């Protein structure tokens, strides 16, 4: 089957939205500051120690918080005001960058201090990333989402092109302390735009979600959504091996190529320059080729660049390879981000991005430590060669897993029709046992069972704790089935009804079509006593849904 790509938009169309344009420009300015600081951190660490592992751990310190906090950050962004969350994280990072600058001017920087401060700034970044990506649909129409994601990627990579070059100049002329100070100032642009944004809060008659409940629901969504799992696996297979460039480039440039700060900054900027160039032909590629072909092409390009860098370690060749690595990075990153925007419903979007950031950030953080330790033993060139081989093998293993978000026109808007008659059960009461009884025509039994398998995935994906389907054997006449599942509270059960999309309604309709009377009989029961399991067992079952 030939893949298609129905999601098309002109690159600059999203800039017609004034608030999107303001957020985009401010975020790009902040990212320039972040890249300037990155040069300062890596340059300073490379001069504090000659260990490739410690230099690579700067990347780990920056990305490890994404692994630790990604899903939590997504849950926060789905249940609190995203504007306030973003304002808080920007102010926190401003303070951390200012403190790092002050410690540098006072000559109090050691490798451990540098790693701790990079971790703290990475924490602020990890908490803000899901919220930043989840607000894109609030700023743009669906038809402009792909263009908005591409522009965000372009803005980030313009920063990655300009920031390192500026960082090299700042570090060379003024020192690392001023690089950190400029990063602190750059956060003011985002703070100013967010403070002026009059965000319209969503209104709902449902009780608000609690943090731990939202976290568990996000976990269950990732566990039971097959399309989302495929996106995560493709992201992991790429980021683990592609991240070797960001881990080993400082050691390669400073220790092997013996470059100064300006040349090192320019070399880092080559990645961003390639990503910016890649934006302009990513759209035409999507119109001509399927998603799997694009992912394969960009992955092979990244592997080729790493292989050449491993065996032709000359500065011009390395710069060219970094340029095309940036093209690959933009292509993969933009495709993955757009696929999430197009396939994940709004109620769990930030948690989905948080999960994605956990996977991506974990690969970058743990991968940086892994590649740094391997380079310390086997050498930088051998490590890059192995990563190129690993990229090809990962592509071969994952190529059959197709991302279908670009091939489907999904209606992700929730349906707010009443789920059932009013109930006396209060929203905070729980757990709730929901039972639905079906009387199925005998000739439709197998079709019903097949349809109910899809219903099971839907229930679990939308937050059910446990699910089961029972059949009453040896009963004369039509077979009878009892579907049952647990919700943590009545409020959570009501939210599950409001999470249903048009595609979910079609899944339920396919099951109900096999029922004699068209609709099952439904009961809602609230727990009175539960002596069957220990507290630890109940906590585990509530978290995992098992």
Please characterize this protein's 3D structure:
With 546 residues, this protein is mainly alpha-helical. It has 19 helices and 4 strands. The chain has helices at residues 18-48, 52-79, 82-105, 111-134, 136-139, 145-173, 176-196, 211-224, 226-242, 244-256, 261-288, 291-311, 315-343, 349-378, 380-398, 445-461, 490-498, 502-512, 535-544; strands at 432-439, 467-472, 480-487, 521-526. The chain is elongated and about 85 Å long. The protein has a 4-stranded antiparallel beta sheet with strand order 2-3-1-4. Helix 6 runs antiparallel to helix 13 (315-343) and helix 10 runs antiparallel to helix 11 (261-288).
* Average pLDDT score: 80
Continuous helix count: 19
End-to-end distance, in Å? 37 Å
Strand content: 5-15%
Give the beta-strand count.
4
Sequence of strands across the biggest β-sheet? 2-3-1-4
Roughly how many Å is the radius of gyration? 26 Å
Structural class: mainly alpha
The gross shape turns out to be elongated
Order of helices and strands: HHHHHHHHHHHHHHHEHEEHHEH
Low-confidence stretches: 1-9, 533-537, 542-546
Helix content: 55-70%
For the biggest sheet, the summary is:
4 strands, antiparallel
